[in-house]
Amino acid sequence: MTFSQKNLNANETIALDLHPHWWYFSSPVFALVVSIIGSIWALTTDGDSNLGKVMRVVFIAALVVSALWVVARYLKWMTTHFVITSHRLIFRTGVIAKSGIEIPLERVNNVNFNQSIFERMLGAGDLLIESGGEDGQSRFSDIKRPDEVQRMIHSQMELAAERRGSYARGGGGVASVAEELERLEGMLQRGTLSPEEFEAQKRRLLG
After folding, report:
1. Over the stretch 35-46, which tens digit does the pLDDT of each residue have?
2. What is the pTM of this model?
3. C-alpha 62: how far from chain center
4. Strand 124-131 with 137-144, pairing
5. Which segments constitute the SHOCT domain (predicted)?
6. Of 99, 161, 164, 197, which sits with the fewest C-beta atoms within 10 Å of its C-beta?
């Protein structure tokens, strides 16, 4: 299932749409395999004893629960998207109750990825994105080829910056001033600019 186009803004395009890596299924699949093996063992051993009957009920119940867990995880996998567009990063997840994160590309300050040796062999890993929003940092797990995703984000950030520069040169004065003020406010909040420097830059922009 692909990310719905109706969730995009005008003139916004999708550069990358990812579901979680298949390692996302490791826990429920492992539980299902163990419960299958246990159920086969319980059904082929002496079932007349009280212990045998109990073990049979336990493993069959575990089989049912783990199978439902796999189905639930698959439905969540189908409805989980990590999307890079021409304007923002979008993370959406949830089958019935849904949650999501959206980070405009101009607010992204830093993108890091982390892979253990085992995850590197599998082609999976985590992304840590630092932004100028209220959350500050957002971690996304079970990302396919996180190093390539990191490069894709940087590439889209550069393209977005070029578009903003072209728009400013083309006469988008009001929008470019507003964007510059927003950037300066972010620098003030992070401590990059002092209040005096911020006021001086603000007066310069407003003429």
Report:
1. 999 999 888 876
2. 0.72
3. 31
4. antiparallel
5. 179-206
6. 99
